[in-house]
Amino acid sequence: VSFLCCTFIFVSISTLTHCPFFRSLSLSLSLSLSHSLTLSLSHSLTHFHSNVRGDWALERLGAVLIEGATNIEISDCHFTRIDGNAIFLSGYSRGVQILRNEFSLLGNNAIASWGKSVDYDGTGGQQPRRGLIYGNIAHDIGLEQKQSSFYFTAQSCENTLVGNIVYNIPRAAINFEDNFGGATLVQDNLLFNTCRESSDHSSINSWSRMPYVTMVRDGITPSAIPAYTNFTRNFIVNNYAADGGCVDTDDVSSLLPSF
Amino acid sequence: MFIKKFISILSILCIYCTVDIADATGAINYPGRSRSSAELIELISSPRNKAGTFDPLFDCAWRDYALQYSTQIQPWLSSQQLAAINDALSIESLNCSNKEQQRILTHHKPALISAPLPTDLSIYVDYINGNDANSGSLSDPLKTIFAAVQVARVQHGSSGSTVPVSIILRSGTHVLNSTIELTPQDSFTSFQAYPGESPIVTGAQPLPKLVWTPFNVTNSTKPSWGPVVNDTNAVFGECPSADVPDKGVMSSWEACQSSCQADKTCTAWTYHTPLCTGCSGFIGHCCWRLDGNFPTTSQVGVVSQQLIGSSNKNIWVADLSSLPPGSQPSMTALRINGHRATLARFPNANPEYDIFPKGYIMNADWLPPVPGPVWNETLTVDLRPLGLADMGSGVYINYTVGIGGNAARYANSRSFWASRDFGPQAYQPTATCDRWNEMHLRSPSGLDTSTSLANAPYANISQLVVRTWREYHWFSWMFTVGEQKGSQFIFNGGGHQGGEGCDVAAEYYVQGVFEELDAVNEFFYDSAAGKLYFFPNITDQNPDGSPNVGIAEVPTLAVLFNLYGSEEFPVTNVTFNGLTITGGRPTFLDPHDQPSG
Questions:
Q1: Cβ atoms of residues B28 and B20 within 8 Å
Q2: Which residues of B touch A105 (CB under 8 A)?
Q3: Contact at 8 Å (CB) between B473 and B506?
Q4: C-alpha dihedral (A192, A163, A97, B190), degrees to nearest 10
């Protein structure tokens, strides 16, 4: 069985070579003795010369709006029937922990994480960083603005999304407007019934058309090259025919060369 | 058995993956981006798991494993949460035995998560029984969270700013009249549920007890049919299927109409006349719809008609004009008995459970964008010196934004899509969004309603919002309407919720006009007269049909808790635990900015 697994990965890994900043290890099947199967299926397309893009705008508003904060914990809460965003991280924050919450029947995003920069210069650190999004469950969201996700991120980095369950949403479950400084981990999430109203992009989507300068990659050098963001060991089912498959590293996130 | 199942899964995955990639490489530029409405509907609203497409063994197996996996990554899931996941996993499944699901549901024992213990400095809040003049002790609770925050500040002042203070919320619904503002002085404060209780914090304001009188109550059950529309196919790509049966060849569209209208399960019909040139094999066929949808595609020689509901009207009115002057709420959202009422809408749909294509008009005549400068100025910085490489496509080497011009729709007047790298040098009115040298910020300036809105023009358009998909379903736009010119709506706001624009939009619906208040669960508030109109659904009805509304609330706050500090002086160590947070107002018309693109 494990041989079959490996073969499957190697056959498909060639499609992943052009998404260096979103290192996708998600084409994997693992079988444990407890008869549990973790399954995820993804592929990344190489869109050279692709000049078509989709993206959206946001309001910096949320039922819980956080800017200029450290060590905030939101746990075991239920955000429901909010017509806009539930949690919005804007500008500077460090170590915001969003744990085991449920999000349901929301108008817009469950969690939006959107920093600020001086034009391209993100070295000032005015972004949500080192957040932990763990063990949340989100479903039936995006009732008002269809361009919404369980987790939206732009100009934000070094975050961890682990063990979340997302289903019944109009578009992507997790959307990277950009990778900014990178170093985000997306692991052990269950994503299904996504892209139900668009069949566009994927359960995890990334664009990253705008370069930003940060020092995240090596800690000291201002660089337009972000650190790797990893998508790994997620259980994704693309059961609403999204054209990007399970993980769509779109536009620049698939264009840049390897380093 | 297990290994066999596993190998089966592998083979299906491989096939599936191969098909997907073939799709990608088979298209010239960008796979799937030019899907028409009909193709989209075929993809996302018809059963994907047609017999023979997927292995039923695989289809059932992944759902079983997803349920099992849920309990592994979140062992604390409640039985209700797990049952809801199971329900979602059952949508459009093939005929799976539910044996494995039942085993998982039965054996799941939620892991206990211990709530944080109240600290020595605890302030109790009881919205129902408390009083802000009280001390805030367990036996003498405060009424409002606002007052508790003030007391917490005093305690931090006397005990030390880093000594944890707990604000403990008792059961019940805590109504916030205004946003709770938390600044660095509120650090080391937690907001938590009293152990074992489930407090709710809402940004929605309750209305006073409503007294309902009948406004338009007909108690008639005669069905009401829309106009017979020519050159329109409402079953494209779907006939025959379970919800769209082919009723065979009939002599005329009138015969097709009669057959449908005589059957209580038929909600629309489409007849393929001999004039149709693209209907090979379907000429003379009458197809019914049983699902209430009416997803129309233009096709010469095809005739369709839709059941638009019972003509039964059950509209009641409550007078709110006695509210103090200035306190009449703006009411574009409403909760009735805890659930969303639907602002009067056409076509009808319930946003909490209906998904596209239900509730959309498929074809629209959009008015072209108003010509204007793409930008007033641009900022473009070549970042190759900072490590960025040119990938050979000549783009993506720059940080690039346009400022002003079309980007003025955003609050900060800046957009990647109006930038020099991606905007055109001049407005080109003949281009559409399909032309990929023409990408910038455009949106239609209005809508001609003559073919789609039977009730337009409307008497009062102050709350009217046109809500539409951008082509290819990249995002949804919301437009406000400034004036009606004959059958045309002229937009005066909105169109700032998305990114890369287009001259036209796609499927749409309208909301916020009294004339469309015609279906269960819909409401409309006439703010000038202070009158609230409501068409109750069966669960909100007394035996005589009148609304049985225990509580009506108006979502009013966009932000319930605002934590605001800075890098130098941050808000720190604030916790929210065990709360239900609800009642936020719609924000899709608020100013938006565009992230990086």
A1: no
A2: 340, 352
A3: yes
A4: 90
CA distance B442 to B425: 14
- Please report, for chain B, how many H helices and E strands are present, in that order: 7, 35
pLDDT of B516 above 90 = yes
Helix (H) or strand (E) holding A128: strand A128-129
- Say what angle helices B79-90 and B99-107 make with each other, to 10 degrees: 160
3-state secondary structure of A154: strand
> Residue A41 corresponds to which tokens in the numbers above?
């299926």
Is the bond preceding B547 in cis, omega lying within 30 degrees of 0? no
Kindly determine whether residue B84 and residue A125, on different chains, have CB atoms separated by under 8 Å.
Answer: no
Do the bridges between strand B446-448 and strand B488-494 make them parallel or antiparallel, or are there none, so unpaired?
antiparallel
Residue with tokens 């050279």: A48
Per-residue pLDDT of A46-56, as tens digits, reads 222 223 344 78
At B233, list the tokens: 């196919």
Dist. CA B164–CA B144, nearest whole Å: 20
Q: Note the Cα B20 to chain centre separation in Å.
A: 28
Residue B18 phi/psi, 5-degree rounding, is -60, -45
| pLDDT tens digits, B38-73 | 776 666 554 454 445 567 788 888 999 999 999 999
pLDDT of residue B363: 85
Backbone phi, psi, residue A30, to 5°: -130, 145
- The partner residue sitting opposite B596, judged by closest CB among A52, A68, A178, is A178
Q: Taking the model in full, what pTM does it have?
A: 0.84
- In which residue are the tokens 């919720």 written? B497
* ipTM for this model: 0.86
B67-B72-B77 Cα angle (round to 5): 75
The answer to whether the CB atoms of A199 and B44 lie below 8 A apart is yes
**Could you tell me which of B218, B337, B235 has the C-alpha nearest to residue B279?**
B235
